[in-house]
Specification:
homodimer, alpha+beta, PSTPO5379-like, PSTPO5379-like fold, 2 domains, seven-stranded antiparallel beta sheet, 11 strands
């Protein structure tokens, strides 16, 4: 029995994760519910980071901000606890990865502000529902990600390049791909580039900076979306004394439906 | 000659306003360009206010934030100066209106953070382009606004009721009204209520809290939009030592096209 298939509600997942009884990727878990990235920073960094996200909504679509010390996402996930309800966390100190943990109780303090940021799983579900296949899912690999020459709008301490993810799309599905992903600006939304990777500073499409290579077939075009790795990379550059994130693939699952944040 | 009709570009307007040579409402000026509300607050209030706006994007759609002391909107209006390029400003001290001025040079300091917030003129233009008439424009009155029982999501110091504007819409145009305004979430977007005013706590539709009454004809339904007066009212409740806004109707005109912020 595949445990993933049996988890249909966010509450079931929180209860398992809280007891360290679910330690796998959240891909496909609690289908139809929003999953989010987590970025937790000291409150001294919070205004600049929120402003950075406001200025760069495509890579950094903020869905909820938890005020200093708060750990229950009252808007998106009442009853959850972001300190325990993600399977794996990464702890960074002064911009360097220090450890990976199953909860962040020992690191928690009342000075920490947490940002829940939209995740590509939402628009990928919309694509799959429209019968647009996704190579990295077919291949069972991590989506390829690239550092581009597209600059973000800086804010205070924060600046840096946009990181994108790439999905090869059959030419016939290009228009539909733009349409269905445009409905979800809260989870990166429409693509930011279609076609020639070199135009956005990607030298070799087969050598992603993060994730794994996706094979591009003859009748396919590479399509690029702004990626949630951007805010993490930019935040790390500012070397905060502490920063906590989810571990890649182990997202925070909310009890809010994907459709509730669609723009139309 | 009507001077309004001769002002087609934001730059022309800035130059006139800067010299106090244009002192009228900006309705209909530089058609097709985004106009915005201005809210300027001390930086101690900036994170809570930005977070309030993030949590309440319908009444408070932030289009640009100018960091402490900055007065040129580099994203929406390069070359403009928000201290001089609005015809009339309101200065509030400790939550009370202190004066109305033609520029804010004497009040300016490096501690002030400015928020440019989307304005209903944008979605009204979209409605007019779709041949949906607007009663307050026909009547040449100010749109009626009401304090509702719809609570905003509080953030830090900031909380309070949602203020809405009302436009009577012919039944035949209801669907088209929702469609065309939905394209502009950055300027209040889709309506938040259609029909019975009492359901959102409005006792007498003929006695608006701000603006003037709009006649509702027999084949028309009152339609309500979240209104930019909300963030101003909420900010004033927190009684900041200083707060500066545009005067109602005298908006900041950007050099960015309405269409550039449409979601589809």
């Amino acid at each position: 029995m595949n445990i993933t298939e049996t988890i249909n509600t966010p509450k079931e997942l929180w209860n398992l994760v809280r007891k360290d009884e679910y330690l796998k990727s959240t891909a496909g878990v609690a289908p139809g519910y929003l999953q989010t990235n987590l970025v937790t920073l000291p409150k001294e960094y919070a205004f600049d980071f929120l402003l950075f996200c406001q200025r760069n909504p495509k890579p950094c679509p903020v869905l909820e901000v938890l005020e200093p010390g708060k750990f229950e996402p009252e808007i998106l996930a009442k009853g959850a606890d972001i300190r325990t309800d993600i399977a794996f966390y990464r702890i960074y100190e002064n911009g360097k990865l220090k450890s990976e943990t199953k909860n962040i109780i020992d690191y928690w303090n009342d000075n920490l502000v947490s940002f829940l940021i939209g995740c590509s799983f939402t628009f990928e579900t919309a694509m799959l529902n429209a019968d647009i296949s996704l190579r990295h899912i077919e291949q069972d690999t991590t989506v390829p990600m690239y550092i581009t020459n597209i600059k973000t709008e800086p804010a205070g301490k924060f600046s840096g390049p946009t990181v994108v993810s790439m999905r090869p799309i059959n030419k016939e599905n290009l228009v539909r791909t733009v349409q269905v992903t445009s409905r979800f600006p809260g989870t990166h939304g429409a693509p930011i580039h279609i076609g020639d990777p070199s135009e956005i500073g990607i030298k070799n499409i087969n050598l992603p900076d993060f994730g794994e290579k996706s094979k591009i077939k003859e009748d396919e075009i590479p399509v690029f979306w702004a990626c949630g790795v951007t805010p993490q990379a930019v935040a790390l550059q500012s070397k905060p004394p502490i920063m906590i994130t989810h571990s890649p693939g182990y997202m925070f699952v909310t009890s809010t439906r994907d459709e509730s944040i669609a723009v139309i």
